[in-house]
Amino acid sequence: MRDSHAPALIPARQLPVKSSVGGGKIFTRQFTGRFRNLRILLAGCLALLFFSTSWVQWNGHQAVLWDLETRQFHVFGTTFWPQDFILLSFVMVIAALLLFAVTILLGRVWCGYACPQSTWTWAFMWVESLIEGDRNQRIKLQASPMDLAKGLKRTSKHALWLLMSIATGIAFVGYFVPVRELVQALLSLQWFSTSAAWVGIIAALTYLNAGLVREKVCLHMCPYARFQSVMFDRDTLVVAYNAARGDTRGSRKKGDDPQALGLGDCVDCYLCVQVCPTGIDIRDGLQMDCIGCAACVDACDEVMDKMGYARGLVGYMSEAMFAGEQTRWRRPRLLGYLALLLVLVGGLLWALNNRHLVDMSVVKDRSVLYRYTSEGEVMNVYRLKITNKTQLPVRYHLQLDSRDRLRLVKHRDIVLSAGDSDEFPVQVVMPVLAPRAAAMLSFDFVLVDSNDPQRTTREAAHFLYPAN
Ligand code: SF4
Ligand code: SF4
């Protein structure tokens, strides 16, 4: 008796393999499998992080907020100021190097499992199949004339896509303006603001990219696809078809001996093509259009299981594996990237730990070079601008570091609230001693954080003095 699910029964080439009845639209088939589950898990976690992080509160503030108005970036109790943005470049270089290292090791796993474009496209495709049915139903629907049923399905699909796009727009803009205020403003119909306009722009881009343009973003717009092949080496694991095992391709009944029929293990069912979100045939070899999502691996594994063959006709393979060699994990380029990553991550941690949490600038009063006090001391006047870069109020103690007998006049501790900045006049005096040759003395203003006396900030200054 014939197995009704056997791949041999799938009418290969009878339905369009990848494109629709018109317009070149790709209709992907639903499938299950371990790599699909892994993608749902990874992409699901990332999407959950994206939608929820901006709602988390920390010390009474939004935990992650890039406040464009004040140009401050708040991350879980730490505030980064424009002067700290060099650290952001560090983070970006580290992210790029990490991507390079992962690409050398595992090909385009970023594209297949974590890239927002792929993640949102998969989510939009899932909604599409929920409303319009499986691949064959969608192809028929596309070809059918417009009637009430088709109109309802199309309207529901686009309405859901729009809702998902608006949610994405709100979540994204919520990292730049306080998300609670943003949602409140949108709910009270305040739609004519810059924030609301940005929600609209991001929502429109999401709808366009994930709903309408989809794989074309990966194929024609993403620069990563262009240079990824340069990063591959003969040990990089990429999704590939084992032609030596699969060819000659051909349909057969379950239980037939392929050798006797002069066939390889590929039953030519085209399932690997029909699940592919970019619509390519992995059996044509490594292609730039392959985003490494492993949908074809899951589809083919299912076919192999049904036929009673070993899995892995399509799978993660390297050039070295095809040549019958062991994949080398210790490769010079990979080790180079890892070493560089280690240095950069170490540097970033050091910079974060030694980051100044207070900013101090000193300007000397230019109207008078110096003056004499009633006690006959020489006085210089300065203006100190101090910025508390933390998210907590801080009391600072000001002192001088000088080899000469300089001292502050009647100076009290400075208290600044979180993120506050203020200017303070400061008087420094020195007793008139024996005549000096130098007309200028160097010293440092030292600001001590009274919560953590080990944390000090210095700023150099000059004291002008009547020379003889
Ligand atoms: S590679 Fe696998 S899924 Fe693709 S046509 Fe051959 S048997 Fe079917
Ligand atoms: S060929 Fe396979 S791995 Fe590549 S994009 Fe298509 S389904 Fe994904």
Automatic annotation (TrEMBL):
InterPro entries: 4Fe4S_Fe-S-bd, 4Fe4S_Fe_S_CS, Cyt_c_oxidase_cbb3_FixG, Electron_Trans/Redox, FixG_C, Helical_ferredxn, Ig-like_fold. The chain crosses the membrane at residues 38-58, 85-106, 159-177, 189-208, 334-352. Keywords: 4Fe-4S, Electron transport, Iron, Iron-sulfur, Membrane, Metal-binding, Transmembrane, Transmembrane helix, Transport. It holds the Pfam family FixG_C. GO terms for cellular component: plasma membrane. The keyword Electron transport applies. The keyword Transport applies. Residues 257-285 form the 4Fe-4S ferredoxin-type domain. GO terms for molecular function: 4 iron, 4 sulfur cluster binding; metal ion binding. Gene3D superfamilies: Alpha-helical ferredoxin, Immunoglobulins. PANTHER family: FERREDOXIN-TYPE PROTEIN NAPH. This is Iron-sulfur cluster-binding protein. It comes from Cellvibrio japonicus (strain Ueda107) (Pseudomonas fluorescens subsp. cellulosa).
